[in-house]
């Protein structure tokens, strides 16, 4: 590991332009540093190798990114286990997973294990999160500004970020629960910022990728229930009715996001096998379900258990209209 880090520092120092030391540069505000991080992650040509550390696993990954001729190219590859990768070419994102046929969707964002703060609207987050400068430290062999992204209402998780003072890329991102304990960590082990990364990724324009899947339009279904409490900033992303693949059980769902975290709410008919109430947290993901009348309500998302419970308890159902026998039998 030491050899890897030393090699990374040497390579970065050779490829990046010489700048004044971090100690000599004027210190920007925490929010300004996050804007610099956002611009760097979107605009630079770079390669980042990192490990994703969870409670019971360590996943090594490599991410490459560049913008060539105004078009974004990116490539994420898993470095252990079965071959898995994600390729972005403009608004086309292709997924290659074991046991599934490769497919491509129309999107400008990967669904992949990357720090969510890398490509997030920092200005919008500032309404619901505080950005706190925590000083400077070293990570992956380079000087970093340490910034905490903390929710103003205390109903969400927070991030602690190590941002390289030179490239402004994220070298480390710790997801923290409300007690400050880490739920997962992204930690860089080596990185390169160089235009040649863009030259390599531009070759993706000639690669034969799966055709874009034409997804049918998702109508925003008018559901007979409402959510009466959500943490500030969470907005509706989608709502629909569908059947579960394995059981054919009908279910209604709504999805919400605040730009950094997301959650989904599912409502279905309760039956004899429904558990009256359960709460499960695995890493960043919480599942809370309970029974309201004859309905099972389930909240799943990257939120603390207390927040999931409060959301589930806030759901109310519209009463079905009562039709009197006289009115029903009356003819026009």
Automatic annotation (TrEMBL):
<dbReference type="Pfam" id="PF03888">
    <property type="entry name" value="MucB_RseB"/>
</dbReference>
<feature type="domain" description="MucB/RseB N-terminal">
    <location>
        <begin position="29"/>
        <end position="197"/>
    </location>
</feature>
<feature type="domain" description="MucB/RseB C-terminal">
    <location>
        <begin position="221"/>
        <end position="315"/>
    </location>
</feature>
<protein>
    <submittedName>
        <fullName>Sigma-E factor regulatory protein RseB</fullName>
    </submittedName>
</protein>
<dbReference type="GO" id="GO:0032885">
    <property type="term" value="P:regulation of polysaccharide biosynthetic process"/>
</dbReference>
<feature type="signal peptide">
    <location>
        <begin position="1"/>
        <end position="22"/>
    </location>
</feature>
<dbReference type="InterPro" id="IPR005588">
    <property type="entry name" value="MucB_RseB"/>
</dbReference>
<keyword id="KW-0732">Signal</keyword>
<dbReference type="Pfam" id="PF17188">
    <property type="entry name" value="MucB_RseB_C"/>
</dbReference>
<dbReference type="InterPro" id="IPR033434">
    <property type="entry name" value="MucB/RseB_N"/>
</dbReference>
<dbReference type="GO" id="GO:0030288">
    <property type="term" value="C:outer membrane-bounded periplasmic space"/>
</dbReference>
<dbReference type="InterPro" id="IPR038484">
    <property type="entry name" value="MucB/RseB_C_sf"/>
</dbReference>
<dbReference type="GO" id="GO:0045152">
    <property type="term" value="F:antisigma factor binding"/>
</dbReference>
<dbReference type="InterPro" id="IPR033436">
    <property type="entry name" value="MucB/RseB_C"/>
</dbReference>
<keyword id="KW-0574">Periplasm</keyword>
<comment type="similarity">
    <text>Belongs to the RseB family.</text>
</comment>
């Amino acid at each position: 590991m030491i050899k890897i880090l030393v090699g990374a520092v040497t390579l970065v120092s050779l490829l990046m332009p010489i700048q004044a030391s971090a100690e000599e540069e004027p210190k920007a505000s925490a929010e300004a540093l996050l804007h610099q991080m956002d611009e760097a992650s979107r605009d630079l040509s770079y390669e980042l190798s990192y490990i994703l550390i969870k409670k019971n696993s360590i996943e090594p990954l490599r991410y490459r990114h560049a913008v060539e001729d105004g078009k974004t190219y990116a490539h994420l590859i898993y470095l252990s286990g079965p071959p898995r990768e994600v390729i972005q070419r403009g608004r086309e994102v292709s997924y290659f997973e074991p046991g599934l046929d490769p497919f491509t969707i129309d999107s400008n964002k990967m669904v992949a294990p990357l720090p969510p703060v890398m490509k997030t609207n920092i200005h919008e987050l500032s309404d619901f999160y505080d950005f706190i400068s925590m000083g400077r430290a070293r990570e992956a062999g380079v000087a970093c500004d340490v910034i905490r992204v903390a929710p103003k209402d205390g109903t969400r998780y927070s991030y602690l970020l190590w941002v390289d003072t030179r490239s402004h890329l994220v070298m480390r991102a710790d997801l923290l629960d409300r007690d400050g304990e880490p739920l997962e960590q992204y930690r860089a082990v080596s990185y390169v910022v160089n235009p040649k990364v863009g030259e390599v990724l531009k070759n993706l324009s000639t690669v034969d990728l799966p055709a874009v899947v034409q997804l049918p339009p998702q109508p925003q279904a008018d559901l007979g229930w409402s959510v009466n409490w959500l943490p500030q900033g969470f907005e509706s992303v989608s709502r629909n009715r569908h059947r579960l693949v394995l059981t054919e059980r009908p279910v209604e769902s709504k999805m919400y996001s605040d730009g950094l975290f997301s959650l989904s709410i599912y409502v279905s008919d309760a039956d004899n096998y429904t558990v009256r109430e359960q709460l499960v947290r695995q890493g960043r993901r919480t599942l809370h379900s309970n029974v309201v009348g004859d309905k099972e309500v389930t909240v799943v998302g990257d939120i603390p258990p207390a927040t999931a419970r409060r959301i589930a308890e806030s759901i109310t159902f519209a009463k079905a209209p009562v039709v009197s026998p006289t009115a029903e039998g009356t003819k026009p």
